[in-house]
Specification:
Blueprint (H helix, E strand, L loop, with lengths): L7 E3 L2 H7 L5 E3 L3 H12 L4
Parallel strand pairs: 1-2
């Protein structure tokens, strides 16, 4: 099977701090950002 990918998703300071714990951070301010995340996951960039 495939190895899972965990990503911190958000738009605030709390999410950024969590991301500093060696978790990838994906800022989502609008729908386009979420669409880009889906594409990155589909293409296994993360």
């Amino acid at each position: 099977g495939r190895k899972p990918t965990y990503v911190v998703i958000g738009d605030g300071r709390d999410e950024e701090l969590a991301a500093k714990q060696s978790w990838p951070f994906w800022r989502v301010n609008e729908h386009q950002n979420l669409t880009a995340l889906v594409h990155a996951l589909e293409w296994q960039f993360l």
